[in-house]
Design goal:
Blueprint (H helix, E strand, L loop, with lengths): L1 E6 L5 H12 L3 E3 H11 L2 H11 L6 H12 L8 E4 L5 H9 L6 E6 L2 H9 L1 E3 L6 E3 L26 H27 L4 E6 L4 H12 L2
Parallel strand pairs: 1-3, 1-4, 2-3, 4-7
Antiparallel strand pairs: 5-6
Helix pairs in contact: 1-8, 2-3, 2-4, 3-4, 4-5, 6-7
Length: 215
Protein backbone atom coordinates (compact mmCIF):
# COMPACT_ATOMS: atom_id res chain seq x y z
CA UNK A 1 0.00 0.00 0.00
CA UNK A 2 1.69 3.17 -1.24
CA UNK A 3 -0.34 6.12 -0.05
CA UNK A 4 0.00 9.88 0.09
CA UNK A 5 -2.18 11.86 2.47
CA UNK A 6 -3.09 15.43 1.60
CA UNK A 7 -4.88 17.71 4.00
CA UNK A 8 -4.73 21.16 5.45
CA UNK A 9 -3.44 21.89 8.96
CA UNK A 10 -6.03 20.82 11.52
CA UNK A 11 -7.92 18.41 9.26
CA UNK A 12 -6.80 15.35 11.24
CA UNK A 13 -4.17 14.11 8.82
CA UNK A 14 -1.66 13.21 11.53
CA UNK A 15 -4.17 11.08 13.42
CA UNK A 16 -5.21 9.20 10.30
CA UNK A 17 -1.62 8.78 9.11
CA UNK A 18 -0.68 7.05 12.38
CA UNK A 19 -3.70 4.76 12.13
CA UNK A 20 -3.03 3.80 8.51
CA UNK A 21 0.61 3.00 9.23
CA UNK A 22 -0.45 0.70 12.06
CA UNK A 23 -3.23 -0.86 9.98
CA UNK A 24 -1.04 -1.69 6.98
CA UNK A 25 2.30 -2.08 8.82
CA UNK A 26 3.96 0.56 6.69
CA UNK A 27 6.32 3.39 7.66
CA UNK A 28 5.30 7.03 7.70
CA UNK A 29 7.71 8.96 5.50
CA UNK A 30 8.08 12.53 6.68
CA UNK A 31 10.51 14.61 4.65
CA UNK A 32 11.52 16.63 7.69
CA UNK A 33 12.56 13.48 9.54
CA UNK A 34 14.42 11.87 6.66
CA UNK A 35 16.23 15.09 5.78
CA UNK A 36 17.48 15.34 9.37
CA UNK A 37 18.48 11.66 9.31
CA UNK A 38 20.34 12.09 6.02
CA UNK A 39 22.23 15.10 7.34
CA UNK A 40 23.15 13.28 10.56
CA UNK A 41 24.32 10.21 8.62
CA UNK A 42 26.84 12.25 6.65
CA UNK A 43 25.81 10.58 3.38
CA UNK A 44 26.61 12.27 0.09
CA UNK A 45 23.04 13.51 -0.26
CA UNK A 46 22.97 14.47 3.41
CA UNK A 47 26.10 16.60 3.01
CA UNK A 48 24.54 18.24 -0.01
CA UNK A 49 21.30 18.96 1.89
CA UNK A 50 23.27 20.34 4.85
CA UNK A 51 25.14 22.76 2.59
CA UNK A 52 21.83 24.38 1.62
CA UNK A 53 20.47 24.37 5.17
CA UNK A 54 23.65 25.96 6.52
CA UNK A 55 23.21 28.81 4.05
CA UNK A 56 19.57 29.24 5.12
CA UNK A 57 18.34 28.07 1.72
CA UNK A 58 15.61 25.58 0.88
CA UNK A 59 16.92 22.18 -0.11
CA UNK A 60 16.23 21.81 -3.87
CA UNK A 61 13.45 19.47 -4.97
CA UNK A 62 15.82 17.14 -6.80
CA UNK A 63 17.91 16.63 -3.65
CA UNK A 64 14.85 16.06 -1.46
CA UNK A 65 13.40 13.60 -3.99
CA UNK A 66 16.67 11.68 -4.16
CA UNK A 67 16.72 11.39 -0.37
CA UNK A 68 13.08 10.23 -0.45
CA UNK A 69 13.97 7.63 -3.09
CA UNK A 70 16.84 6.33 -0.92
CA UNK A 71 14.49 6.08 2.07
CA UNK A 72 11.85 4.23 0.05
CA UNK A 73 14.48 1.68 -1.02
CA UNK A 74 14.94 0.53 2.60
CA UNK A 75 13.55 -2.83 3.64
CA UNK A 76 10.69 -1.51 5.78
CA UNK A 77 9.15 0.06 2.67
CA UNK A 78 8.91 -3.22 0.76
CA UNK A 79 5.22 -3.62 1.63
CA UNK A 80 4.44 0.05 1.14
CA UNK A 81 4.72 3.46 2.74
CA UNK A 82 2.76 6.56 3.59
CA UNK A 83 4.05 9.92 2.37
CA UNK A 84 3.34 12.70 4.85
CA UNK A 85 3.84 16.33 3.88
CA UNK A 86 5.45 15.58 0.55
CA UNK A 87 5.11 16.41 -2.24
CA UNK A 88 3.79 19.91 -1.58
CA UNK A 89 4.11 21.36 -5.07
CA UNK A 90 3.71 20.22 -8.68
CA UNK A 91 7.49 20.30 -9.37
CA UNK A 92 8.00 17.97 -6.39
CA UNK A 93 5.24 15.66 -7.63
CA UNK A 94 6.76 15.63 -11.12
CA UNK A 95 10.19 14.93 -9.64
CA UNK A 96 8.77 11.91 -7.78
CA UNK A 97 7.43 10.54 -11.05
CA UNK A 98 10.78 11.14 -12.73
CA UNK A 99 12.64 9.02 -10.17
CA UNK A 100 10.05 6.25 -10.45
CA UNK A 101 8.10 6.62 -7.19
CA UNK A 102 4.65 5.17 -7.91
CA UNK A 103 1.64 5.78 -5.67
CA UNK A 104 -1.44 3.59 -5.32
CA UNK A 105 -3.65 6.19 -3.69
CA UNK A 106 -3.74 9.90 -3.01
CA UNK A 107 -6.22 10.48 -0.18
CA UNK A 108 -7.37 14.06 0.29
CA UNK A 109 -8.87 14.88 3.69
CA UNK A 110 -11.25 17.81 3.49
CA UNK A 111 -12.93 20.14 5.97
CA UNK A 112 -14.46 23.64 5.75
CA UNK A 113 -12.02 26.42 6.61
CA UNK A 114 -14.20 27.77 9.42
CA UNK A 115 -14.29 24.31 11.03
CA UNK A 116 -10.50 24.06 10.91
CA UNK A 117 -10.11 27.55 12.38
CA UNK A 118 -12.29 26.50 15.34
CA UNK A 119 -10.27 23.32 15.81
CA UNK A 120 -6.87 25.02 15.78
CA UNK A 121 -7.62 28.26 17.60
CA UNK A 122 -9.29 26.35 20.43
CA UNK A 123 -6.26 24.22 21.26
CA UNK A 124 -4.50 24.80 24.58
CA UNK A 125 -1.27 23.21 25.78
CA UNK A 126 0.51 22.41 29.00
CA UNK A 127 4.01 23.03 27.76
CA UNK A 128 5.96 20.99 30.31
CA UNK A 129 4.06 17.73 29.82
CA UNK A 130 2.73 18.20 26.30
CA UNK A 131 -0.86 17.59 27.44
CA UNK A 132 -3.39 19.15 25.10
CA UNK A 133 -6.92 20.42 25.58
CA UNK A 134 -9.57 22.23 23.57
CA UNK A 135 -11.81 25.02 24.79
CA UNK A 136 -14.85 23.35 23.17
CA UNK A 137 -14.12 19.67 22.56
CA UNK A 138 -11.74 18.59 25.33
CA UNK A 139 -12.01 21.09 28.15
CA UNK A 140 -9.85 20.99 31.28
CA UNK A 141 -11.63 20.55 34.62
CA UNK A 142 -10.84 24.18 35.46
CA UNK A 143 -10.88 26.56 32.47
CA UNK A 144 -7.36 27.59 31.48
CA UNK A 145 -5.56 25.24 33.90
CA UNK A 146 -3.87 21.86 33.47
CA UNK A 147 -5.79 18.99 35.10
CA UNK A 148 -2.70 17.49 36.74
CA UNK A 149 -0.57 20.41 37.87
CA UNK A 150 -3.05 23.28 37.92
CA UNK A 151 -0.58 25.34 35.91
CA UNK A 152 -1.81 27.77 33.24
CA UNK A 153 -2.43 26.46 29.74
CA UNK A 154 -1.16 28.39 26.74
CA UNK A 155 -2.20 28.95 23.16
CA UNK A 156 0.64 28.52 20.68
CA UNK A 157 1.38 31.52 18.49
CA UNK A 158 0.71 29.50 15.35
CA UNK A 159 -2.78 28.65 16.64
CA UNK A 160 -3.87 32.28 16.77
CA UNK A 161 -6.60 33.05 14.27
CA UNK A 162 -4.71 35.40 11.96
CA UNK A 163 -1.80 32.94 11.75
CA UNK A 164 -4.12 29.96 11.22
CA UNK A 165 -5.97 31.68 8.38
CA UNK A 166 -2.67 32.63 6.75
CA UNK A 167 -1.43 29.02 7.01
CA UNK A 168 -4.64 27.81 5.39
CA UNK A 169 -4.30 30.34 2.56
CA UNK A 170 -0.73 29.17 1.91
CA UNK A 171 -1.91 25.55 1.89
CA UNK A 172 -4.68 26.34 -0.58
CA UNK A 173 -2.27 28.16 -2.91
CA UNK A 174 0.20 25.28 -2.86
CA UNK A 175 -2.14 22.32 -2.78
CA UNK A 176 -5.06 23.18 -5.05
CA UNK A 177 -2.80 22.88 -8.14
CA UNK A 178 -1.32 19.66 -6.70
CA UNK A 179 -4.79 18.13 -6.34
CA UNK A 180 -5.53 19.04 -9.96
CA UNK A 181 -2.23 17.40 -10.96
CA UNK A 182 -3.24 14.12 -9.31
CA UNK A 183 -6.73 14.34 -10.78
CA UNK A 184 -5.07 14.41 -14.20
CA UNK A 185 -2.83 11.48 -13.25
CA UNK A 186 -5.92 9.57 -12.08
CA UNK A 187 -7.67 10.28 -15.40
CA UNK A 188 -4.69 8.63 -17.12
CA UNK A 189 -4.98 5.59 -14.86
CA UNK A 190 -1.66 6.28 -13.13
CA UNK A 191 -2.99 6.72 -9.59
CA UNK A 192 -6.23 6.59 -7.63
CA UNK A 193 -7.43 9.76 -5.93
CA UNK A 194 -10.10 9.89 -3.25
CA UNK A 195 -11.67 12.68 -1.23
CA UNK A 196 -12.72 12.01 2.35
CA UNK A 197 -14.48 14.32 4.77
CA UNK A 198 -12.40 15.03 7.85
CA UNK A 199 -15.49 16.18 9.74
CA UNK A 200 -17.06 13.98 12.38
CA UNK A 201 -15.98 11.11 14.58
CA UNK A 202 -12.35 9.98 14.17
CA UNK A 203 -13.40 6.32 13.82
CA UNK A 204 -15.91 7.25 11.14
CA UNK A 205 -13.21 9.03 9.14
CA UNK A 206 -10.94 5.97 9.57
CA UNK A 207 -13.68 3.67 8.33
CA UNK A 208 -14.29 5.82 5.26
CA UNK A 209 -10.60 5.81 4.35
CA UNK A 210 -10.29 2.05 4.83
CA UNK A 211 -13.36 1.47 2.68
CA UNK A 212 -11.66 3.36 -0.15
CA UNK A 213 -8.26 1.71 0.23
CA UNK A 214 -9.76 -1.79 0.36
CA UNK A 215 -11.18 -1.49 -3.16
Amino acid sequence: MRVMLLGSPGVGKGTQAKFLCEQYHIPQISTGNILRAAIQSGSELGVMAKSYSDRGELVPDEVVCSIVKERLAETDCRTGFLLDGFPRTIPQAEALLTIGVILDYVVVLEAPIDEIVVRLTGRRFHLTSGRTYHVLFDQPKVPGLDDVTGEPLVQRDDDKEDVVRNRLQVYERQTAPLIDFYRQQAAKGKVNIAFVSGIGDIDEVKANILKILSK
